Amino acid sequence: MSKRAVLEVIALDVEDAVAAQAGGADRLELVTDMAADGLTPPAATVAAIRRAVDISLRVMLRLADGFAAGDVDRLVRVAAELREAGAGEFVLGFLNPDGGVDLGAVERLAGALDGCPWTFHRAIDRAADRDALRKQLDGMPGLDTYLTAGSADGVDEGLSVLIAEAARRGEPGYEQHLLVGGGLRLDHVPTLLAAGVDGFHIGGAARPGGWEAPVSAEAVARWRTALDAAPA
Length: 232
Description:
By secondary structure, this protein is of the alpha/beta class. It has a single domain (6-228), classed as Alpha-Beta Barrel (TIM Barrel), CATH 3.20.20.380. 36% of the residues lie in helices and 15% in strands. It has eight helices and eight strands; from the N terminus they run βαβαβαβαβαβαβαβα. It has helices spanning 14-23, 43-52, 72-84, 103-113, 130-137, 155-167, 189-194, 217-228, and strands at 6-11, 27-30, 56-60, 90-92, 118-120, 143-148, 177-180, 199-202. Helix 1 (14-23) packs parallel to helix 8 and helix 3 runs parallel beside helix 4 (103-113). It is globular and about 40 Å long.
C-alpha cells in the first residue's frame, strides 16, 4: 500500500494555519519573522494555533538570523514555555563557525525536549560536510526529520543531492524522514516522488500574494492534489 506524502506548510498565525489545514496540509511549521528566514514565534501564537487546528505543529527554535545557537540557556527556557503552550514537536539546527554541527547546543536542546520529535532544518544545507553532520546526529533523541533543499541555493541546485540521499534511506545517519523545501516548485514533485521522497515543505508557494499575504487554501490544495495524484 502506498503511503501518502506529507505536506508541511509554514504558518505565521491562526489565519495561515486554518487555511493550510483547509487546503490539505498534514503539518505546519510555526515561525515568525520570515525576513530572518523564520524565528521562534510567541508562545501565545502557538497556543492560539493549537486551539484553531488539529493537525501536527512543529515550532521553530531559533532566536536570531543565522545558524549559530546563541544563548542556549534562553533556548531551553523558550522551549519549556512553548511546551506549556501546547507545542509537542519542534524544528532546530545549529552550526559552529567552521560549518560543523554545534553538537553541544543540539544535544542540550534535544535533552530539554525530552523525546519530543523534531526536525533538523536547512542548516544542513550550509554544513561543511552534510554526510558527517548526519553521522554525528545519528541516534539523537527525537530527531526524525531533515528539512533540506540539497543545496544552500535551493532545490534546483540540490536535486541530485536529494535523490542520492533518498536512495540511502535506512543507512546509519539516513533513517530520518527527508522533507524537501527551499525553492520547491510543483514541477519538482514528479522527480522527487519517483526518487522515493515523501515529504514536501512549502512557504512562499502557499502564498501567491507574497509573504505579506496570508496562506491560500487553494494554493495548498493544488499541492495536495499534485502529491495525491502521483502514481503509487
